[in-house]
């Protein structure tokens, strides 16, 4: 198997209802890392906290992520 095939096989699937590129980025970050705080995501993704809170609220409303204390995890 080629390296590119391996990378694609290991990549988590994105839910089809995710349309926003930034929401996709946050979702992939959480599925890759397992959990993260807003500060960790902001530092790693270069996004402002206010943007992240908005995205995370939408992802929570769609039951894609859950909040556990200060951290968020994939649902």
TrEMBL record:
SUPFAM superfamilies the record matches: Winged helix' DNA-binding domain
InterPro entries assigned: WH-like_DNA-bd_sf, WH_DNA-bd_sf
Superkingdom of source: Archaea
Gene3D superfamilies found in the cross-reference section: Winged helix-like DNA-binding domain superfamily/Winged helix DNA-binding domain
Name recorded for this polypeptide: TrmB family transcriptional regulator
Organism name: Halorubrum glutamatedens
């Amino acid at each position: 198997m080629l390296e590119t095939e391996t990378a694609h096989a290991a990549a988590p699937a994105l839910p089809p209802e995710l349309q926003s590129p930034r929401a996709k980025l946050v979702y992939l970050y959480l599925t890759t890392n397992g959990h993260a705080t807003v500060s960790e995501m902001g530092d790693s993704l270069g996004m402002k906290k206010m943007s992240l809170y908005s995205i995370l609220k939408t992802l929570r409303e769609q039951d894609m992520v859950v909040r556990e204390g200060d951290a968020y995890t994939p649902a």
